[in-house]
Amino acid sequence: MEIILVIIKDKELIKNIPGIKLQNHNILVLSNINYIKHYIEEYMPKYVILSAKFKNYKEIAEYINSYTTSELFITDLEKKKNTISRGIYLGRIDNIEDLKRVLEIIDNLNLKINRKEEDRYKFIPQQIISFYSIQGGVGKTSMVFNFAWYIKDIIDGKILIIDLNFCEGPSDLTINLGLNLSPNLSIFIEKITQGKDCFNKSIINLDNDKIDILQSPLSIYQSDKFNIDMLDSIIYSARNNYDIIISDVPFRYDNVSLEMLNLSTTSILVLSPNVKLAPRVSNFQKFLPTSQKKGIIFNKVGQSEKTYIDEYKSILDIPVCDRIPFVPEEDRKMIASGSNSFDILDLQSRMSNLRNFIF
Hints:
This protein has helices spanning about 10-15, 35-45, 55-65, 95-105, 115-120, 140-150, 170-175, 185-190, 195-200, 220-225, 230-240, 255-265, 280-285, 305-315, 350-359, and strands spanning about 1-5, 25-30, 45-50, 70-75, 80-85, 90, 125-130, 160-165, 205, 210-215, 245-250, 265-270, 295-300, 320-325, 335, 340-345. By secondary structure, the chain is of the alpha/beta class.
């Protein structure tokens, strides 16, 4: 069986761990942090539970996230709730019953979860989701925001939208959401030597909601300075602060766009139902990681175009998440809630299929 490595200091907990029996994993305990690399290399645990009571737990977490394939769970944080792998929210581990509960949850992560536990623990996996297209005007940016707006009330966590649509002046997302032009990615580009602070200073919050946005720079001059090393740094920082990261990837094959797709756990291709583009999609697939979850959304589908989608399915091996019908001008409404009103078409009723596909 695969291994769950528990890294804790509490001697009383360590003494009682042998009494915990799991159905799907073996438990391995480590109390001396100096042996972490040896234990990781020797036993290759699938999951690691790390107590924040170790003074250097952040450095240990960075090592596990950067150099191993283990999924990390950090416990004993001082916050009321702590975010751990897969977006599960758990409290502190103060006794053996707390630890037993955590271990049993992890032991059953890949099994069917009953409704009661799902409601209690919010089993939502951390995801990096990229929306991209191979054509313009398909409503990709609208899809990005609709999905973020839809899941913000479903997950008990934070969402980050990364806008990589570089252009001269504000992007479509900035304009349609009516955002202030600053802060934006230019701050990160110019102050990257300041470390984590430059990332935090680049983020704009959407009216104190659970959605943060990293806006694109306001000039091509700034955009040209942005490279894949900067993108990697952003994603690393974002993974430590957000539960869901959603990227709006532009229609171009530059290194930044391809790296964003490569870093994503899920990529969603937004298309119009034009079967002539199928060969282009097929050729583009070679840029996507083979192990990555992939899906297609057909947007603005007319009644006469449904047969094209069936032709797509016969050519490509990417599953279709949804077919969103064309909305006539007289039936359109924009996303609005309370004081928030955005110039983005309301597709909230169509987001459940995408949510089920990704999660």
